[in-house]
Model the fold of this input.
Amino acid sequence: MISKKIEKLLNQQIAMESDSSQFYLAMASWAERSGYNGVSAFLYRHSDEERQHMLKLIKFVNERGGVSQLPALKSPPVNFKNVNEVFEQLLKHEVKVSNEINKLVDNCLAEKDYTTHNFLQWYVSEQIEEERLARNLLDKLNLIGGDKGGMYLFDRDLETMIPEGEN
Ligand code: FEO
Done:
């Protein structure tokens, strides 16, 4: 059974994963409209994964005798300046998510909730991978600069890339 405090924090994390999914969906849609089919496919997959992160949390809260709460959907931005801005925002967002996961892990230890602590280790690893991949993609974009051929190849590479950078 989870405490009310941990339940509340897990529900906040559910909201955050839902926001991530919406945010990346907006990015995917922008990329699709802008002719970046590979970037768009990658971001659509990323959005789906964030939804899975949310579902995993919902199921965990329910299994532990808590009550999961679904948040209201926030309306994300419609337009982005360019692909660099998309990945800069994505990395910034993932760093924010990692900080929240870390706080949640701290609270589990303070509450001696070792079950939730154990459950959250998957999220800790996932965040490391997601941040690593986002930094890697930004490095590539900085190397490409304004080179159209480089951008074409970047877009093509993302067509099949898995958002957490593994597999
Ligand atoms: Fe589920 Fe990328 O945070």
In short: The pocket of MU-OXO-diiron is lined by residues 17, 20, 50, 53, 94, 97, 130 (CB under 6 Å).
